[in-house]
Amino acid sequence: MRAIRRFTVRTVLPEPLAALAELASNLRWSWHRPTLELFASLSPARWEAARRDPVAMLGSFSPEELLTLAEDEQFVARVDEAARDLHAYLTQDRWYQSLDAELAAENREPAPRSIAYFSPEFGITAVLPQYSGGLGILAGDHLKSASDLGVPIVGVGLLYQFGYFEQSLTRDGWQREDYPVLDPDELPISLLREADGSPAEVTVTLAGGRPLVAHVWKAQVGRVPLLLLDSDHEANDEPARAVTDRLYGGTPEHRLHQEILLGVGGVRALRLWSRLTGAPQPEVYHTNEGHAGFLGLERISELTGTGLTFEEALETVRAATVFTTHTPVPAGIDRFARELIMSHFGPEGAGLPGLSVDQVLALGAETYPGGDPAVFNMAVMGLRLAQRANGVSQLHGAVSREMFEGLWPGFDAPEIPITSITNGVHAPTWVDSRMIELAERHIGPQIRTEAKAWEEIAKVPADELWATRRQLRSALVTEARRRMRGSWLKRGASNAELGWIDGILDPDVLTIGFARRVPSYKRLTLMLRDPERLRDLLLHPDRPVQLVIAGKSHPADETGKRLIQQMVRFADEAGVRHRIVFLPNYDIAMAQALYPGCDVWLNNPLRPFEACGTSGMKSALNGGLNLSVLDGWWDEWFDGENGWAIPTADGVEDANYRDDLEAAGLYDLLENEVAPRFYERDTDGLPQRWLSMVRHTFASLGPKVLASRMVADYVRQLYLPAATAGRAITPDRARDLAAFKGRVRLAWPDVRVEHVDSSGLSDSPQVGDAMSVRAVVYLDGLNPSDVEVQVVHGRVSPQDLITDFVVQDLRWAGAADNEPAEGRHVFEGHLKLRRTGPFGYTVRVLPRHEGLAAPAELGLVTNA
Ligand SMILES: *Cc1c(COP(=O)(O)O)cnc(C)c1O
Predict the structure, then answer these.
(1) Phi and psi (nearest 5°) for 250?
(2) Which parts of the sequence belong to the DUF3417 domain (predicted)?
(3) Is 614 close to ligand 1, i.e. is its CB under 6 Å away?
């Protein structure tokens, strides 16, 4: 029978247990072990049945059972204790508050009072499945660490009715997708309401002036509120209701609607949030990947309503906006047809007041060589709307500077204003409690809060470390068998056929994990390049390895699904199925068992397409060793002893041949380095050399891979300067900066370096010698104070290119009054030769203004 209507009856907790509701609704439980244990202890069976979801589990208790529980004084005391702990966590001063004190002591401006963090997905816990992969998990870890550090962030995202899909397999290994409906009333979120109790709303406008109305839900992530917009609203027609149906679903138009709701609606939700709660307005806006970029348009529109021009509003918005790019893979970058943007922001749609469609289109135009004139690029818009931008590892920063170089013509990649902050992971979420307890016993409680405490890992005795590693491996074996049985039952097998599953995997065999989304650059099947060789590794008589594999393919990606099928068919073979498993439905819950249980974490992307990668960091924090291509974070922190680098065949054009080479490198490492070291035991049965690598991994990577390090980096390197710039840019200064940019752009084509003299060097210059440089520059109508004239010097290549250069400003020395025309100026200065070898220099002119954050910001430069 089908219900004609559904609604959810909320649990009413007796007064002595009232605090349980708060503990269940603040998602801090998802990383706070004592609170998790409190819920689990209520009834371990129901806890598992409710898939470790406190809200669902409380709902499974009858009023009578709850009354009985309320009489259990011991339990009530534990609830009170947990509630007190939560309140202390929510109100005590933390790192950010001490940073503020530090800034005040140095007479510097205070840190921003509020920072908005926009992301299309958030992976916080398995019970709030609003993520598809790394981007979402990272956003979740960002919020959690911000909460731990006391950083006043407000998250902004969408609430997807079906979340991301659940993956299962058909009999022959083809991916199946299921989209269970998520009932918001059963999720750990609450609806924002007006003072009179009616649901609060946000409205945005789509093509043709159609309104799209959304509810706003709030998830509480420790101290951090996360606002989620939901278009499943009675006022919308069916297509409008479906805008937030699923992550990354459907047509380009569907995605555009989602992104308009996220960006434009998200800013409106923040205004609503401040109005309802008195929370301060954000001083900094962080756009996590291009999808959320329309937030900048809405803010420009707001500002033009206060009397600023478009250009002035743009400067104001840029000053306080941070943009993070997350992928160098072209397919990962969001692009729309221009027509689609025109129909939504043009005159036939209501558009946004204060912005013409041409102004919008210009922001996303690919105006560089190779750009597509028919396309609107969200990453490009993100870079134009933010004065500060970053990639997510050092290598990715460098790759991004090259990739977007064309937006700053005239500048070489090193000066492109895109910096990098390497991702990190939230340790309390990802480190298994057994590992953290072991470390705590020997190192002390500071292991939970002080990154550097990992450097003391040597205090943990080898036998105990090894025993814990075995425990974790063994737990994974049990979990993998359970999941495999579930998977085979779904694939149509009966329990009677599945006896073999109790014998798969072995808690004493070297265990290698590989789990990730399945876009082709991640090369799920690289290990299958030479199936015979893989088989030999799995079945080695003395030094076998076993593989645990997982990953979802995007529903529309047939190639990815074929890769999964290829993998599954291999793993299904009777001869190897005890040593290699594919576990369907990779999600946070699986990940939390998978990373700790693996001895080695394998990653073999096509370099340099993995912007950062974070799964290997989670493995490292549990004592796993990384075996990875030198891409993303591993390129930066592999030190020769904390794991292994799979050699890459960069530059080999033939993709097949390159895969062959890299796969062979992988097999060689496994056979000759990894497995021998794992199985080499001393007289006590301990793999001492292996354990010293594990220890070195903890000590060298432990302090670096933490999301608390990452969030502190964002605060110091990007949020503080953005807040300062945002405060400085009053309407008058915005006017001044916009006018400056206009003036400079107009004059620039005529600006030139007319003449450069140098003097003071002998015929055979040596290190330490000084030379004087004098340049005559034509500035058209610009003032000498509008420009910076610089001498750029350094090593020169045989082609006369200056590499590895140093930049030095020249001083204005007056108008060149003996020259015939006006607008000529002399700039001069001295420079010292600091290095031997071929040396070269040139002189260049750049715009200068105190409102600029980087020399290349305007993309204007004139070289001699
Ligand atoms: C960490 C994590 C990811 C991201 O891992 P990458 O190394 O960036 O591919 C994806 N999915 C889940 C469930 C994760 O926990």
Answers:
(1) 65, -150
(2) 13-128
(3) yes
Ligand 1 atom nearest the C-alpha of 612 is 8
Query: What pTM was computed for the model?
Result: 0.96
Q: Quick one: 306 exposed, middle or buried, by C-beta within 10 A (0-12, 13-18, 19+)?
A: exposed
For residues 215 and 161, give the distance between their C-alpha atoms in angstroms, rounded to a whole number: 12
Domains 461-700 and 747-863 share a fold: no
pLDDT (tens digit per residue) in 463-506: 999 999 999 999 999 999 999 999 999 999 999 999 999 999 99
Mutate to test the pocket of ligand 1, among 127, 137, 422 (most ligand atoms within 8 A of CB): 137
User: Residues 6 or more apart from 819 whose CB is under 8 A from it?
Assistant: 776
Task: Spell out the domain ranges in the chain.
Answer: 15-91, 114-423, 461-700, 747-863
Task: State which amino acid sits at residue 665.
Answer: G
Pocket test for ligand 1, best of 124, 393, 516, 523 (most atoms within 8 A of CB): 516
Q: Does the beta carbon of 609 lie inside 6 Å of ligand 1?
A: no
Instruction: Reply yes or no: is the peptide bond before residue 63 cis, omega within 30 of 0.
Output: no
How many angstroms does the Cα of residue 616 sit away from the middle of ligand 1?
Answer: 9
User: What is the rounded distance in angstroms from the CA atom of residue 310 to the CA atom of residue 259?
Assistant: 22
Between β-strands 770-778 and 752-759, what pairing exists: parallel, antiparallel or unpaired? antiparallel
516 C-alpha to center of ligand 1: Å? 6
* Distance from Cα 117 to the centre of ligand 1, integer Å: 20
Q: Does domain 747-863 have CATH number 2.60.40?
A: yes
Placement of tokens 């309140």 in the chain: 87
Q: Which fold has domain 114-423?
A: Rossmann fold (3.40.50)
Contacts of 417 (CB under 8 A, 6+ apart): 388, 389, 408, 853, 854, 856, 857
Q: In angstroms, what is the span from residue 650 Cα to ligand 1's centroid?
A: 25
Judged by average pLDDT, the poorest of 200-204, 249-253, 372-376 is: 249-253
Closest CA to 586 of 561, 555, 552: 552
CA of 133 to the centre of ligand 1 (A): 5
Asked whether the CA dihedral 10, 14, 18, 23 is positive or negative, the reply is negative
Pocket test residue of 130, 431, 614 for ligand 1, highest count of atoms within 8 A of CB: 614
Measured CA to CA, the distance from residue 69 to residue 478 in angstroms comes to 32
| Nearest CA owner, ligand 1 atom 6 | 613
- What is the C-alpha separation between 587 and 125, in angstroms, rounded? 9
The rounded distance, in Å, linking the Cα atoms of 638 and 524 is 22
Query: Which range among 222-226, 249-253, 398-402, 541-545 shows the weakest confidence by mean pLDDT?
Result: 249-253
Mutational test site, ligand 1, from 247, 553, 615, 635, max ligand atoms within 8 Å of CB: 615
The H or E element that residue 132 is part of is: none
Q: What is the DSSP string of 67-103?
A: HHHHT-HHHHHHHHHHHHHHHHHHHS--HHHHHHHHH
CATH topology of domain 461-700: Rossmann fold (3.40.50)
The helix (run of H) or strand (run of E) holding residue 217 is: strand 211-221
What is residue 452's DSSP assignment? G
| Ligand 1 and 513: CB distance under 6 A | no
Cβ(207)–Cβ(344) below 8 Å? yes
Query: Which atom of ligand 1 lies closest to the CA of 595?
Result: 15
Q: Nearest-5° angle of CA 569, CA 571, CA 573?
A: 75
**611: which 2 tokens?**
């912007």
Tokens describing residue 217:
């839900």
Q: Of 728, 712, 813, whose CA–CA distance to 772 is shortest?
A: 813
Q: How far is the CA of 137 from the centre of ligand 1 (A)?
A: 7
Task: Check if the beta carbon of residue 543 is closer than 8 Å to that of residue 678.
Answer: yes
**What is the rounded distance in angstroms from the CA atom of residue 767 to the CA atom of residue 836?**
6
* 615 CB near ligand 1 (under 6 Å): yes
Taking 90 as the threshold, does the pLDDT of residue 763 lie above it? no
Bridge-based pairing of strands 166-169 and 153-158 is unpaired
pLDDT, position 253? 95
